[in-house]
């Protein structure tokens, strides 16, 4: 049996993890969208939208004159996104279940295609990018954000933290994914016909607060994949998770999440 390249637990548990990540990354993502040139009236696609956090932000930014389509494989997350869009009074956003790699995609002609933490999970991110570029109109924007897992750090150093980072990277790589794809993004965009690509790097870092719990929550979310791969025992995983929660709640420590590389550019006019 060929395993999926996505190693993180989905469903409602996965949705709550994404909600936490969305709160942490909201300031830097909004700054990116502003810098890239998102404006009122744009027709946008959020590829791999998860629970729709950025889709809703885009819907607010483009206003009722614009529209947003969010696509994802996880129907559980999409149904939550639809409910939250209705509760927020946003009628200019819709969500569709499809596979960015092989599924039917919306009709081309978008002013903006955006993807966050999508390409890292794909075995052939270059092919996925080409599909996304094909959805853009002339002079339209492609904006992506993705991780460089090597960029994690903790201070003081933590054996549990290092083990978590190593297990995530090893498990993702075993499935054919690239946990360190961030620095590749500008080159991938230009190879797909976007250019010249622009680049920025951000890194959520905290000494206290919910930001410091994301490593423990993510370790829990990849536990099934780690165990299936045989890279650790259940006892090992549980011990790492316990230590990560202790580290996250210790207000004398500092944790840096993965580096996030932001890259963007336009199709030819």
Topology of helices and strands:
Layout: H1 11-36, E1 43-47, H2 53-62, E2 67-72, H3 75-87, E3 93-97, E4 110-116, H4 125-133, E5 136-148, E6 153-155, H5 159-174, H6 185-191, E7 198-202, E8 205-206, H7 214-229, H8 234-249, E9 254-256, E10 259-266
Parallel strand pairs: 1-2, 1-4, 2-3, 4-5
Antiparallel strand pairs: 5-10, 6-9, 7-10, 8-9
Account of the 3D structure:
- The chain has 269 residues and is of the alpha/beta class.
- It has a single domain (11-266), classed as 3-Layer(aba) Sandwich (Rossmann fold).
- It has 8 helices and 10 strands.
- The strands form 2 sheets. Strands 3-2-1-4-5-10-7 form a 7-stranded mixed β-sheet, sandwiched between helices. It has a 3-stranded antiparallel β-sheet with strand order 6-9-8, with no helix packed on it.
- Helix 4 links the parallel strand 4 (110-116) and strand 5.
- Helix 5 (159-174) packs across helix 8 and helix 7 (214-229) packs antiparallel against helix 8.
- The longest helix has 26 residues, at 11-36.
- It is globular and about 55 Å long.
- The N and C termini lie far apart (45 Å).
- The mean pLDDT is 95.
